[in-house]
Amino acid sequence: MWIFGYGSLIWKVDFPFEEKVIGCIKGYKRRFHQHSTDHRGTPEKPGRVVTLEVGCEEDEVWGVAYRIKEDDIEKVSAHLDYRERGGYSKRTVTFYPKDSNKSSLQLHVYIGTEDNYNYVGEAHEADIAKQIVDSAGPSGTNIEYILNLAKSMREIAPNINDEHLYKIEMNVLKLLEEK
Ligand code: SIN
């Protein structure tokens, strides 16, 4: 079984895996349009985390695919279903490795679709940044979430300009400077 990570699953890997491949899925956009009430915020003061929205054919979301060993599938699936319980459901999508000598593969991805209770949709990037700076939950601060994600994306996909992510990161850094 393969799992695709495009948010915290890129930088917080708390499950065993046998192989890790950098690449992308197509036809989706990574967006901070999902509330987090269980990890990076609380029900009273939700944080903002990423989900995937259907985009156009040219849209790509870069991240990491993990191959889970047969013997670990049940344990890892249960762990990740619990970790991603805040509105995410599992979909099967096609993954394209960065290394074009490797072939595409089918994998699972956790998506907070528009009908889940934590989906909040669009907001101005500066307002999303304000919410992130003000939020924390049982897993830590929302600031840590976005800074780790942006740092990881620069490492794994340095040539990809993920405008939405980097614009919000820039606004977060500006707000932190002003504090
Ligand atoms: C993911 O990382 O693939 C799912 C979203 C998240 O937990 O941040």
Walkthrough of the structure:
- Catalyzes the cleavage of glutathione into 5-oxo-L-proline and a Cys-Gly dipeptide. Acts specifically on glutathione, but not on other gamma-glutamyl peptides.
- The chain has one domain (2-178): Roll (Hypothetical upf0131 protein ytfp).
- The longest helix has 16 residues, at 163-178.
- The mean pLDDT is 97.
- It starts with a strand and ends with a helix.
- Helix 3 packs across helix 5 (163-178) and helix 4 (142-156) crosses helix 5 (163-178).
- A hairpin with a 7-residue loop joins strand 6 and strand 7.
- Strands 1-5-2-6-7 form a five-stranded mixed β-barrel. Strands 3-4 form a two-stranded antiparallel sheet.
- It is globular.
- It is an alpha+beta fold and 179 residues long.
- The protein contains five helices and nine strands.
- The structure holds succinic acid.
- Residues 5-9, 49-50, 84, 110 line the site of succinic acid (SIN).
Along the chain, the helix and strand elements come as EHEEEEHEEHEEHH
The fourth-level CATH homologous superfamily is Gamma-glutamyl cyclotransferase-like
CATH fold label? Hypothetical upf0131 protein ytfp
The CATH class is identified as: Alpha Beta
Main traits of this protein?
179 residues; alpha+beta; Hypothetical upf0131 protein ytfp; two-stranded antiparallel sheet; 9 strands; 31% helix; 32% strand; binds succinic acid
Question: Topology of this structure?
Answer:
Layout: E1 2-5, H1 8-11, E2 19-26, E3 28-36, E4 47-54, E5 60-67, H2 73-83, E6 89-97, E7 105-111, H3 125-133, E8 136-137, E9 140-141, H4 142-156, H5 163-178
Helix pairs in contact: 3-5, 4-5
EC number: 4.3.2.7
Pfam families: ChaC
Protein name: glutathione-specific gamma-glutamylcyclotransferase
